[in-house]
């Protein structure tokens, strides 16, 4: 059976997350339903990451085995037809070898978290960013973020329902950018990169660093919270609105665009 990787974009607001759930809409269920319009034998599909309720993706990756060969462009076009009007799109389909697995073959995942500083409610970006009504100290947040880089036990920044075998992960990058946009409000972007992340890890990082930026925490408290290995030491968890999975990296032999 030919195997295809699907590069998927979605707006997470209507969904209870990527993973199929009983009596709640999920992105996985939507994509599987579209696939079964083309091939009734399709079972459960695997994805690179199980994004939470309300979290978006610009570049989720899933794989599927189909009963017959498809030209990749025609496959993506057919799936997009059957996905309408849901806020899910197959950006690209790629024929991959049978050894490819969307989750286990991934060597890197990249997330973006967007914060917009302004007093007025968001209109065009509503649901796509976390609006904060105060000016944040970007340099202080960068100083706090520096304590999180590298290999650590991230128990403090891990959800109590996280199913990962170990809280030890390596955070390769946590970059913070700021862009002045006039009346649209200053946008702050948190860009994170690691092989894998714990449940709620990114949102826990951002919520904690927002406390630093707002002046409620000194940057050194992030180091102390990490060392505590205690969920109670974490700052507030940022809302899902601003979070997007924006990239998944694979070894070059699989031929997926980076």
UniProtKB/TrEMBL annotation:
One of its GO terms (biological process) is tRNA pseudouridine synthesis. Substrate binds at residue 111. It holds the Pfam family PseudoU_synth_1. The active site is at residue 52. It is an enzyme of class 5 (isomerase). Belongs to the tRNA pseudouridine synthase TruA family. This is tRNA pseudouridine synthase A.
């Amino acid at each position: 059976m030919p195997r295809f990787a699907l590069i998927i974009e979605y707006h997470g607001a209507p969904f209870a997350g990527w993973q199929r759930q009983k009596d709640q809409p999920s992105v996985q269920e939507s994509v599987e339903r579209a696939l079964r319009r083309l091939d009734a034998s399709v079972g459960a599909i695997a994805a690179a990451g199980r994004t939470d309720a309300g979290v978006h993706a610009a570049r989720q990756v899933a794989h599927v085995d189909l009963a017959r060969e498809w030209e990749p462009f025609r496959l993506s076009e057919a799936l997009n037809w059957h996905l309408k009007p849901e806020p899910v799109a197959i950006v690209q389909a790629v024929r991959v070898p049978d050894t490819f697995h969307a989750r286990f073959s991934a060597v890197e995942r990249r997330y973006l978290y967007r914060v917009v500083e302004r007093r007025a409610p968001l209109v065009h970006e509503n649901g796509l960013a976390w609006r904060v009504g105060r000016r944040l100290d970007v340099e202080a947040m960068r100083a706090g973020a520096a304590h999180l880089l590298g290999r650590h036990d991230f128990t403090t920044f891990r959800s109590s329902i996280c199913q990962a075998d170990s809280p030890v992960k390596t955070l390769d990058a946590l970059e913070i950018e700021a862009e002045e946009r006039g009346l649209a409000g200053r946008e702050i972007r948190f860009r994170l990169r690691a092989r894998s992340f714990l449940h709620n890890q990114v949102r826990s990082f951002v919520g904690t660093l927002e406390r630093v930026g707002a002046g409620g925490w000194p940057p050194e408290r992030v180091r102390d919270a990490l060392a505590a290995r205690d969920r109670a030491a974490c700052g507030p968890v940022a809302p899902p609105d601003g979070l997007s999975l924006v990239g998944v990296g694979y070894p070059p032999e699989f031929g997926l665009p980076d």
